[in-house]
Design a protein that fits this description.
Layout: E1 3-8, H1 14-23, E2 28-35, E3 41-49, E4 52-59, E5 63-65, H2 68-85, E6 89-91, H3 117-123
Parallel strand pairs: 1-4, 5-6
Antiparallel strand pairs: 2-3, 3-4
């Protein structure tokens, strides 16, 4: 069974940590991001240590260095996804093309346009009480 260990690091430790992991032959298993309770990003770099996944976590930073020069596509793809979906920028990362979110669904950098269901229903004429909807 695999377990997880979380280690908090600063943005200045992201590249040296990645370089150390690469030198040790550690696989980068994932880079992911979520927002904490205060709405600040938490970016996690997960490395394989056999039965343990060590997650090196950076909290509250909206600009981080890319590690795509160290881990190639294993880092570039998840960093591009995070850049596209969240308000986090990876310095040095090529984001000249979108992965999957068309410009029409974005309102500024990393902000997905969300339309309340009531507004969609109203725009489509589905909020008419006479129709029983």
């Amino acid at each position: 069974m695999q377990s997880n260990e979380v280690i908090e690091i600063t943005k200045d430790e992201v590249v040296p940590t990645a370089e150390k992991m690469r030198k040790e032959g550690r696989a980068l298993t994932m880079v992911h991001c979520y927002l904490d309770k205060e709405g600040l990003p938490v970016v996690s770099y997960d490395y394989d240590f056999g039965p343990v996944v060590k997650s090196y976590v950076v909290k509250g930073e909206k600009v981080l260095p890319t590690i795509s020069g160290i881990y190639d596509s294993a880092a570039a793809w998840p960093e591009r996804e995070i850049n596209e979906l969240m308000d986090v920028t990876f310095e040095g990362l090529d984001v000249s093309e979108r992965l999957f979110m068309p410009d029409s669904l974005l309102d500024g950098k990393g902000q997905i346009l969300v339309t309340p269901i009531e507004e969609i229903r109203r725009m489509n004429g589905l909020d008419n009480p006479a129709r029983g909807e």
